[in-house]
Design goal:
Layout lengths: L13 H6 L29 H11 L1 H28 L1
């Protein structure tokens, strides 16, 4: 949440149900410090993470896709290498 500068899916109040109190994770704080999520809402990110992450994914879709494809190819190659090694041993 710190990297995206957001808090909660819809907004920071999403965390109130999780913690059963008026608090957010420390990663929601404008300036991170230990237990800063216990302070007032004026010290927390207000932007919803759903929209923020959605926009980031749309802007970086090509890079995310290439990363996923490369990861899959590496896994397939390792599978074939280890399978060939197990036949030799």
């Amino acid at each position: 949440m710190r990297w995206f500068r957001c808090c909660g899916v819809s907004n920071y109040t999403d965390w109130f149900e999780v913690y059963n109190t008026t608090r957010v994770p420390d990663s929601c704080c404008l300036e991170f410090s230990e237990n800063c999520g216990l302070h007032s809402p004026g010290t927390w990110w207000k932007a919803p993470c759903y929209e923020t992450v959605k926009i980031w994914l749309q802007e970086n879709l090509l890079a995310v896709g290439i990363f996923g494809l490369c990861t899959a190819l590496v896994q397939v190659e390792f599978y074939h290498v280890f399978r060939a090694l197990s036949v030799l041993l």
